[in-house]
Specification:
A: 322 residues, ABC transporter involved in vitamin B12 uptake, BtuC, two-stranded antiparallel sheet, 13 helices, 69% helix, B: mainly alpha, cell membrane (chain B)
């Protein structure tokens, strides 16, 4: 039983990582007043670029850089549409999702001719598990050994990066000048403008932060969790991350817990597939798959505390009326 | 950046065309990138979609889907609501159609089943939009987010129902049994003599879609409810002063929108597939956003935009057949670009156009 719990928690960590990265990515953008439903597309684009980059260069790090570059490029398209051209942010997000979905499949087929996949990566071109000191020796110690060697040790670098991004994001948002301004521009851009700070440039920087983190999330999928890019491999994770962001009420530490919860549901669903639960019978997998969305809707309905988005979210800032 | 600085024909004609041209220009660059000739691709696309009977049939068949989902988004637009849940509403709409067809197809002819199927589709789609609508109206939860969540909930629900409840007995396929003749809409070429669309599944749903377009036009511009919807969309505060209930308008508009999206399933399920199967919506709901944007939320515009997207779907299939390196994913890319340029970047050319037209007009006013 204890073994199984450790195993479920272990896969929870692995499954939460891309959610967490994408969720924190969305946090920067949405806190600055730019809604982003294009997290999914940016992740997918980055996963493809990272998989392709790592396959061609043989280096996971160069793959990661490719992923981040593509993700930032898509983020800048979103920024250009919604900040510079004051376009509809939702529409722009939908467009980015479509673009990423189409281009990754089209270019993947044209470049590698493996049905939209990128070539499988050898171990040295992937982010592989890092074993912590004494993980093997401590493995047999009851409880602590399992926790240490399975849960803490033995993940790849990007997993640790994701979880370290939580305190870092908290520090940036709540303890730096940039973070204060970023939050202000999401609540009251006119005040930021009056203080002589460029709303446009600030929002662009927030969108770039989103791009970087989505890039890491995508690279995690294709070069750490799997060994190649697979068509549509994000499979709605960008939207689960968005749900987690709302669930966390746009705050970094709760975002981590929301992602862990949703990752846990995913892990349990995989574990329970086709198994009978005592007293309940077989719970359909689809129920667990829908649960993150149902929980988010219930939260949005205001039954578990209210989720209030940044005040200026979704609206373009107009400096002066013409 | 306000309206009225440009002549109407520029606002409603030239600008969408410019946006579209930009989208196609970038699509051409993508085709160049994968080493094919864009002009040749355009030729195959247009010939494949309009050059022969069967192609036209398929183009109009796809267009029928887009008319429904486009109208759905457009109706919500008029109330300033963004219904991004057409995908889920159409999916659940399929459930309504399937229930009507499965219950009646063995006993009555298709024209008896049809009203029940239409009602089932509209009711199921409207029901799926109801919860997000109530949450928006009463709790202020953003309808965009809740409808996205409902798309995913619909996907899980339908897979569950098709695998565990409605699946055909003795089959592992997640689909219902095939409908008998009483649950199948006749093809258009069988009803109207002289038409021949080959194997294209173009059916009576096109007529229903055209009627729905007319109904939406009447609703929005010729009824009291439509006036209230537009007032609420233009200014919620003014609407409240005029005695219009925001809760009522939000819920009714969203349910009409969901109902229209749900009716898309008539074309796919009763008109073509003759069974309920998973993922039959496959993006039509999302593309409805592009259709509504391009059509400027007007039924006539939506008709043209739907035909354009129908051409893309059918022509794109031909293109993938003729040029294996340009896979069907190219259509998704073009859709993305159209949504980007015609939707999110719709004002990109406006400042330049305003400069051109105010320059052209100034000497004239001085002369007067």
């Amino acid at each position: 039983m204890f073994e199984m719990i450790i195993l479920i928690l272990d896969s929870t960590v692995r499954l939460s990582t891309p959610l967490l990265l994408a969720c924190l990515a969305g946090l920067y953008s949405e806190r600055a007043g730019i809604f982003d439903i294009g997290l999914e597309g940016k992740m997918l684009g980055a996963a493809f670029a990272a998989g392709a980059g790592a396959a061609v260069t043989g280096s996971a790090w160069l793959g990661l850089l490719c992923g981040i570059a593509v993700s930032i490029a898509l983020a800048l398209v979103h920024g250009f549409a919604s900040i510079t051209n004051r376009g509809n942010q939702i529409v722009s997000g939908v467009a980015i999702n479509f673009l990423a979905m189409g281009l990754t499949a089209l270019l993947g087929q044209d470049w590698f001719r493996q049905g939209g996949q990128t070539p499988p990566l050898p171990t040295e071109a992937r982010f592989t598990s890092l074993n912590w000191p004494f993980a093997e020796t401590l493995r047999d110690v009851p409880i602590i050994g399992g926790l240490y060697s399975e849960l803490l040790s033995g993940h790849n670098l990007l997993v640790y990066v994701a979880f370290l991004m939580v305190p870092f994001t908290w520090w940036v948002l709540f303890r730096t000048r940039f973070g204060l301004r970023l939050r202000a521009v999401g609540e009251n851009p006119a005040a930021v403008d009056t203080a002589g700070i460029s709303v446009t440039w600030l929002r662009y920087r927030a969108v770039i932060c989103t791009g970087i983190l989505c890039g890491v999330a995508g690279a995690y999928l294709s070069t750490a969790q799997s060994a190649s890019f697979i068509k549509d491999m994000t499979a709605g994770r960008g939207f689960i991350a968005l749900a987690a962001l709302i669930f966390a009420k746009w705050r970094p530490v709760p975002a981590m817990f929301a992602c862990l919860l949703f990752g846990f549901l995913d892990a349990v669903a995989i574990r329970l597939q086709g198994q009978e639960l005592p007293g309940i019978g077989e719970v359909p997998v689809q129920f667990f798959q829908a649960l993150p969305y149902i929980l988010t809707v219930v939260l949005l309905a205001g039954f578990i505390g209210r989720a209030i988005p940044p005040k200026a979210g979704g609206t373009a800032y107009v400096k002066e009326r013409t | 950046m306000s309206a009225g600085q440009l002549p109407r024909w520029v606002d409603y004609g030239l600008m969408p065309l410019l946006n579209l041209a930009a989208a196609f220009l970038v699509s051409g660059l993508v085709v160049l990138l994968i080493g094919e000739n864009p002009l040749e691709a355009v030729e195959i696309l247009i010939w494949g979609s309009l050059g022969w009977n069967e192609g036209i049939g398929f183009t109009l068949f796809y267009a029928t889907n887009f008319i429904f989902t486009g109208l759905a988004v457009a109706v919500a637009f008029h109330a300033s609501l963004f219904n991004i849940g057409g995908e889920g509403q159409a999916y659940v709409g399929g459930l309504g159609v399937a229930i009507a067809c499965l219950a009646l197809d063995r006993f009555v002819p298709w024209w008896v089943t049809l009203p029940f199927a239409v009602l089932g589709a509209a009711a199921a789609g409207a029901a799926w939009a109801f919860v997000p609508a109530v949450l928006q109206a009463k709790r202020g939860s953003h309808v965009v987010i809740t409808t996205i969540m409902f798309n995913f909930i619909a996907a899980s629900l339908m897979v569950y129902l098709l695998v565990n409840v409605m699946g055909k007995e003795g089959s592992m396929q997640p689909e219902t049994r095939t409908f008998e003749a009483g649950g199948r809409l006749p093809l258009l070429q069988d009803v109207i003599p002289g038409l021949d669309f080959g194997t294209a599944p173009l059916n009576l749903s096109l007529i229903i879609a055209l009627l729905a377009s007319l109904a939406v036009w009447v609703l929005i511009w010729r009824t009291k409810l439509g006036y209230e919807i537009r007032t609420f969309g233009a200014s919620p505060t003014a609407a409240v002063y005029a005695g219009i209930s925001p809760v009522r308008i939000t819920i009714i508009t969203m349910m009409i929108s969901g109902g229209l999206a749900g009716m898309m399933a008539i074309n796919e399920i009763m008109g073509s597939q003759h069974r309920l199967l998973i993922e039959f919506v496959s993006g039509y709901g999302f593309v409805g956003i592009a259709v509504a944007l391009m059509g400027r939320a007007h039924p006539v515009g939506i008709l043209f935009a739907s035909i354009l997207f129908g051409m893309l779907y059918q022509g794109g299939a031909e293109l993938a057949f003729e040029k294996p390196s340009i896979t069907r994913d190219m259509i998704v890319v073009i859709q993305g670009l159209v949504i980007l340029f015609a939707g999110a970047l719709e004002h990109m050319f406006r400042p330049a156009l305003i400069r051109i037209f105010s320059f052209a007009r100034t000497p004239a006013t001085e002369a007067a």
